[in-house]
Structure formats: C-alpha cells, structure tokens
User: Which sequence fits this backbone?
C-alpha cells in the first residue's frame, strides 16, 4: 500500500514539475514486450519514462538502475525496488560476470525494459556513443520490439549534482520501432539506434 501511495504521489509531483507530456509519434502505446531506449542526462530520466507510460504498461515495464547508487540508502532501495521495480545492475563486476544477466532474466520473464545505452549520464546536446548492451539484447531477443525515445528538458529539472528539482516543461517522444537487421554489425546498429533517438529531438 505504501508503494502504491508513493507511486501516486510521484506521478502527481512529476506532472506538476514537468507537465509530463508523452508524445507517441512513431508508434502507439501497446501491450507488447518492448525495450525502450533513450538519451540519459539526469537521474529523473527513469521517472520521466515511467510516468509517460500508461498505467497498464508501467506495471510490466522495468528500468535499469545502478546498484551502487540506488541501494546506497534504505529509502533509495525501497523507492527503486518497491515503487519502480527496477533491475539493478553492477557498475563494478568481476571478469566472469555477465552484465546483461539481470536484463535477460527480466526479458525472459516477459517484462519490458527501459535502457539508457550510453551507460552513464551525459551533458552534451547529443547522446554519447551507445555501448554494446542494446545490440547484444537485440541479438538474444529478436522478437522484442525496440522503441527509441527522446527525453526533452529533464536535465533542467534535475541537473547533474543537484538534489532539488525545479519546474520545467518536459516531454518524452517515442519513435518508430526498429530491429537488428540480418548480418548488421554491432557498431552500425548502435550508430543507427543512436541516430533514431537523436531524430526525435526536433519532432
């Protein structure tokens, strides 16, 4: 019950602070298994995409979160596990550990996921080059729909290093689904996926 109350509170807060505009320009919200991949400039990115999804999709869509940061305090851990049901990943891992294992388990379970392929937050106008995770997941799960998204203005709500949000009009724009082409090399695919995200910036 506490988690449900917190989710309602956060949805209301996000709408007050950002306007929480979801723009489905390339596809409709749909109950199918998806990997949403987006630019990453703020800790609020996770919350923005979560809030942009319809209620029925939020329940089956899980974001990726860094274990070391989001489990640092009991409240952060409760918020991310009980409210957002995130998938924790380790930024520091042993050589024989597969960093994609938690994501694969979620996809095998039938969940959709929210992925930030840059791997870390950036501050430039365009995303940093995408890391290999999205490509590897597209290879392992060819039937999961890949949906690019552009999060606009959220870095001004919660700039890197700040803890107090400020009201700024924000939006999440969802683009047309894409898929890994037969024989497509990793870098070519990742560059194409990055361009698909950037293309949504001015839509």
Assistant:
């Amino acid at each position: 019950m506490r988690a449900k109350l917190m989710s309602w509170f956060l949805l209301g807060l996000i709408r007050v602070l950002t306007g929480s505009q979801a723009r489905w320009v390339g596809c409709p919200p749909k109950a199918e298994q998806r990997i949403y991949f987006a630019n990453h400039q703020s800790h609020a990115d996770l919350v923005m995409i979560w809030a942009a999804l319809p209620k029925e999709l939020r329940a089956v869509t899980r974001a990726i979160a860094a274990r070391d940061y989001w489990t640092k305090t009991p409240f952060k851990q409760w918020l991310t596990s009980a409210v957002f049901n995130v998938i924790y990943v380790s930024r520091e891992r042993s050589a024989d550990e597969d960093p994609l294992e938690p994501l694969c388990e979620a996809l095998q379970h039938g969940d959709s996921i929210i992925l930030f392929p840059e791997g870390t937050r950036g501050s430039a106008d365009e995303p940093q080059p995408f890391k290999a995770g999205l490509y590897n997941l597209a290879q392992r799960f060819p039937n999961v729909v890949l949906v690019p998204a552009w999060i606009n203005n959220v870095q001004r709500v919660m700039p890197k290093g700040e803890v107090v949000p400020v009201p700024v009009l924000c939006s999440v724009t969802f683009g047309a689904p894409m898929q890994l082409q037969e024989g497509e090399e990793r870098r070519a695919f990742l560059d194409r996926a990055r361009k698909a995200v950037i293309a949504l910036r001015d839509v």
